[in-house]
Design brief:
The protein is of the alpha/beta class and 191 residues long. The protein contains five helices and six strands; from the N terminus they run αβαβαβαβββα. Strands 1-6-5-3-4-2 form a six-stranded mixed sheet, with helices on both faces.
């Protein structure tokens, strides 16, 4: 090993150790960070730190991860941002959430006027996915990594959720800013 490699290794390890030492450890007794005051009713979910890649079908526990899931293990390939007319594979969408994407899921059969408003909101945001999701607990569910909010229809609050959680200031995503393209644009053939 050269002196240069040794120095870089020491520098990197030193930086990692100082960051780890200065970051307080989470405990189960800590209360979660409260949701933003301007979006009441946002659910905070303990979905893990990210980076857990798993191929194939993943069955998510709705009580733990939300419906649709707001994080957890996911496929190594992410879902491309955009608007989809058919359901997408949850495992790909969760990977996109890890990148800081907001997933707006809607119940199939949503009135066309509401769907048009959702499409307009997502079309104006390069870090968003819109897709139908069967068996949703509400007409519309907005999801980002570790956070979720249910809506009955579309309103300004849906747009606020989309704007806040697709930004660096509001996102809780472990890989915020990673690409939202170059993954898959396919819909879920299992549906």
């Amino acid at each position: 090993m050269t002196l240069r490699t040794l120095c870089w290794t020491a520098l990197l390890l030193g930086s990692s150790l100082s960051v780890a030492a200065s970051s307080p450890a989470s405990t189960a007794s800590e209360s979660p960070v409260p949701p933003p005051a301007d979006i009441p009713g946002v659910s905070l979910l303990e979905v893990g730190v990210g980076g857990v890649h798993q191929a194939g079908l993943i069955v998510y526990d709705a009580k733990k991860y939300g419906l649709p899931p707001a994080g957890g293990p996911h496929n190594p390939i992410w879902q491309n941002c955009g608007i989809y007319a058919k359901p997408i594979a949850t495992e790909y969408a969760v990977h996109a959430l890890e990148h800081g994407v907001v997933w707006i899921a809607y119940r199939p059969g949503l009135p066309s006027g509401v769907l048009d408003k959702l499409k307009a909101a997502v079309k104006g945001n390069p870090r968003a996915i819109l897709s139908p999701y069967p068996k949703l607990p509400a007409q519309v569910v907005a999801t980002a990594w570790g956070v979720q909010k249910r809506y009955n229809g579309y309103g300004a609050e849906v747009k606020r959720f989309l704007t806040l959680y697709s930004s660096a200031a509001g996102s809780k995503a472990p890989e915020f800013g990673a690409t939202c393209q170059g993954g898959t644009g396919e819909t879920d053939s299992r549906q």
